[in-house]
Every structure is written in structure tokens, then in C-alpha cells.
Amino acid sequence: MAYAFTFWTCYVLKTEYETVAKMRLHFLASENRRPDQFTVLVRNVPPDPDESVSELVEHFFLVNHPSDYLTHQVVYNANVLSQLVNKKKKMKNWLDYYQIKYSRNQARKPSLKTGFLGLWGNRVDAIDHYTSEIERLSREISLERDKIVNNPKSIMPAAFVSFKTRWGAAVCAQTQQTRNPTIWLTGWAPEPRDVYWDNLAIPFVSLALRSLVIAVAFFFLTFFFMIPIAFVQSLANIEGIEKALPFLKPIIEMKVIKSFIQGLERRSADRYYIFQFINVFLGSIITGTAFQQLDNFIHQSATQIPKTVGVSIPMKATFFITYIMVDGWAGVAGEILRLKPLIIFHLKNFFMVKTEKDREEAMDPGTLGFNTGEPQIQLYFLLGLVYAVVSPILLPFIIVFFALAYVVYRHQIINVYNQEYESAAAFWPDVHGRIIVAVIVSQLLLMGLLSTKEAAQSTPLLITLPILTIWFHLFCKGRYEPAFVRYPLQEAMMKDTLERAREPNLNLKSFLQDAYRHPVFKGKDDSDSDEAPEEFEKEPGLVPTKRQSRRNTPLPSKQAGSGFVLPA
What we know:
Blueprint: H1 2-30, E1 39-43, H2 53-64, E2 69-76, H3 79-104, E3 111-113, E4 123-125, H4 126-150, E5 155-163, H5 166-173, E6 185-188, H6 197-200, H7 204-235, H8 238-244, H9 249-252, H10 255-262, H11 264-269, H12 276-287, H13 290-299, H14 305-315, H15 317-337, H16 339-351, H17 356-363, H18 370-390, H19 395-415, H20 428-450, H21 464-479, H22 482-485, H23 489-502, H24 508-512, H25 526-529, E7 542-544, E8 552-554
Antiparallel strand pairs: 1-5, 1-6, 2-5, 3-4, 7-8
Helix pairs in contact: 1-20, 1-21, 3-4, 5-23, 7-12, 14-20, 15-19, 16-17, 18-20, 20-21
């Protein structure tokens, strides 16, 4: 049965990988023109005492990409300016609120106190106060904008470089530019509205250090989170309490106390989804019998760990059945009801909504959380593969979960959630890799379990399975994954050729030259358009997106973006 499940899983994965890869290439070939198709993000531009960053970028690409380079836009450190612009927007929102309030009751002009949260201070006319504050901020914004444009220190060693063709952009994005691989780093640019502009102002070295700190913090958080899991799971195992603390046995055997401890699993199951694999699966299995096996687990060799975990797997089948019903079934039911967003909306509507803009933002349903939903689905794949041979009774509960989730989330994606981006299945290699890991984990744990049973002689027959699974993964990685991490030059050339035939007079430079200007340098709505200087005029070919009329997206785009966000 282990061989049967492994071969079936690999067959389905290969078929799906091939299908998704074809769909991705077809989608990329048929999508309309977008700025990110012609643009790369260049990081770590080396300093030059004789040239500015803008001049250096232009000269470098004119020399090294003479036939394809079109234009570029340097990256400014405009974080302070962004804060001022956001503050001005808040002031305008308050001004709109008090003007509406005054229009409804002109017998009394609205007033406020200028102190903290309006609790104390001088009482002033609210409309006059916010009008003067907006004028003051407008002057500060103008001065800060001029300061950024004229101060070389405000320019970061990064730039968005656009090319005349998709082929030229693909060559630049997917190749090493110089002998030194640490400078002139190039990669595909995200769609303009997917850029997290504040992070572009972070130096490359600082960004790397931040990533290291986050990785270390995540490791320790995961490790120490095992402590409460060990405690709770040990409490959920009555036999473990009785063996570790025998003097509590008379109390535990009391009917009322015993029923309370056994019900602890159900109430704690929904708390173990954050660190899915480590803290839900391995954590629950290893620590679920911690009092019995802690001493052996500490002193045994690493080769004995699969055996220790394998023995624990059948003992935790009932726990995971409870977990699937509480976290999976109830979670899907909660998703269709959306009680939490409903409560949050009413709280915002009561305490925070002052204008129609506030109400529109409060009613925004948001997007489907892929970063949390996908790991949850992966966990159920893992549970199904691990228990398919050991305790098949778990499989009907998982099948019911997937059936419910398909119906509910299909409805939510079509009718409720906004589409934040279209990644063209860029996440699929990660999904595939995690399922492969789940298959290998299930095989190793099965070998550990069988080595303790009468069927220990059959354990060597399973050694071939992980080897075949790893070979299958390497085959898929070499055969299909390049379509997800590289843009084929053949596809780029075909698309460029068709575009030149259909639009021979296309002015691509006007389409690209302002696409990657920082939003604070161009008016994003009517109220700010008069403040943008001529060199930062509004980009052409932009129309409002669905639901959010104040945000812009390229006119030809059918989807909402590449899904790329620079790391924090």
C-alpha cells in the first residue's frame, strides 16, 4: 500500500505539474502588455565619484545592452515624503467629515480641542483648523519633494530599467551583468502597484541582515513554542499523566476529571495551525507521549528518531481526527459565515467611519490569504499521506474537508474576495515541493513504525521508496520548474514579433517612462494632482482598478499584478 500511494501521488503530481506549466506558458503568451514585462529591477549599483546614479545606470546599459535599452527610473528614498502625504490624506478626510457635518447643521460650526486625542487643549474651529493644517502640510510636501529631487543622497543605488522588447528584458533579468556577482544585480521588476516603495529605500546589506535576524527569531520562536505544546499534549494523554505522576491517579480516574482532560484535545486543536508541520504534526506526535518517551528520546541516536515518532503515529490518530473536525470542518464553516469580518466591520463602522471613503475601506472584503490558507491545505495532505497506510480511518475526514473547502472557497474567490494579484501559478513549485516532502516524511515514519512490529523484516523493502521519490522530484524540477523561474526567450521573441506586427507605431517609451515613478511624485487623485511638479506628471494609459478608484493600474492589464513584494 505504501508503494501504491507513492506511485499514485507521483503520477498525479507529474500530470498536474505538466498541466500547470502549459497553462502558465499559455497565460504568459496571451496576456496583454504590462510595464513589468519590459522592466528589470537593478540593485547594488556601485558608487562612482564622477557620475550620479542615474548617469551611471544609463551609461552601463547603453554600453552593455545597446540595442535593447530604452529608459530607466532611479529609486528615491521618499519615506519621509510618503509620511507627509499620508498625513495630509488623513487631514483631508477629517476636513471632509467636518464639512459634511456642518452642511447638515449650519446653525453650529463644528469645533475640536487641539490636545491629545481631542481631550484637552484650546478649542478651535474644526474646518479652519484642518484647512490650515492641510496648507501647512502642502508647503512641507513641496519642500521635501524638492529636497529629494535635488539631494544626491536621496537617490538609492537601485533603478528600474526598461527595454525596447520583452526579449531584451528577459536577457537582462536572467543573466549576470558583470564579473563581480555582487553588483549590478538584476531581476524581474514587479508590477508598479506591487512595489513596496518603503523597502526599496533599505540598503541591500541592511536588507540581508534583517532577513538573517528574522530567520534566527523564527527558529527560536518555533523551538520555544514546542514547550507549551508538550505541556498541553501531555495533559491530553491520560496514561502519560498517570505514569509520570502516579500520585494523581486516584484523582484522574474520577469520572468528572477524566472527561475534562480527554476533552482538552478538542479545545486546543485549533491553536496549533501557525507552525503547521513543526508544531502541529511533529510537535503533537513527539510530545503527545512526552512523559513516557522523553528519556529515551534524549539519549537515543538520530537514526532512532523515525522509530520513536513512528510508534507515536497510531496513538495520535484520534487527536488528528478531532483536529480535522475542529480546525478543518469548523474553519470552512466559519469562512462561509465570515463572522469575524462582520464584527470587525461593525466595530470600524461605529468607531472609525467618518466619511464615505472610510466606509468603502471598512467594507473592503480583502483578499484570500494564500500565506495562511496554502500551508493549512499542505498539512492535510501530510496527514493523509502519513495515515493512509497506518490508520486509513483518517482519510474520510480529510476527503470531507477537501470537498467542503472546494465548494466554499470557490464561492468566496468568485463572489467575495478581491483579486490582489495574478501570479500565473508561480507558487506551484513550492506546493509541489512540500507535497514531495510530505511523501518522504510518511515513508520514513512508516519505516520507523514497521521496525518495531513483527513486520520488521519488510522494512528494507521500503528503503527504495524515498530514493525513487527524490529521483522523481529531481526529474520534475529539471523538466518543468524552469517554466516557473525563467521566461523562455522564444516566448518573449514571439510576443514581441506579434506586437510589432499589430502595432507598428507603438510609442513604448511613453508607456514605460513614468510607470515606475514613486507614487508621491505623481498625483494619485484630483486633490493631489496640482501639487505634482512637471517632471513627475501623471503616467499615461492608466485607469482606476475595480473597487479601489484611487489606485492605478496599466490600461492593458487583465490581471492585478505579479504578486511580487519586496521583503521587509
